[in-house]
What does this fold into?
Amino acid sequence: MKATRGNMLDVGMSNKVKYSRLAADDDGYIDLQFKKSPPKVPYKAIALALFLFLVGSLLIIFGALLLTETIKVEHPGRTIPVIIIGALVFLPGFYHLRIAYYAAKGHRGYSYDDIPDFGD
It folds into this structure.
């Protein structure tokens, strides 16, 4: 006996699944394919952004106070690196907090997907 597709399906398999015909106008797509899942909020990344924002702000304020000699220092010229480091720490924190804020408010063009989640 030659094995055919029909014979192979019947051999050793008891199939209790009920099938129905597809509609003639079915194009093969279902609505769930195109439904976007709710965004995952990257809490760790937002906490890191908040930390960078606060540390950067404190460094900028502290550096400005040192530079204007409100806080007395021996070499006021050495306080400029404090301001530069503060700005470098402040900027990414502010950027990601701004994205998180607008994504939380639902503004168009902003999403939690734009914030790196560090592989979580």
Remarks:
- The helical segments are 5-10, 43-67, 80-105.
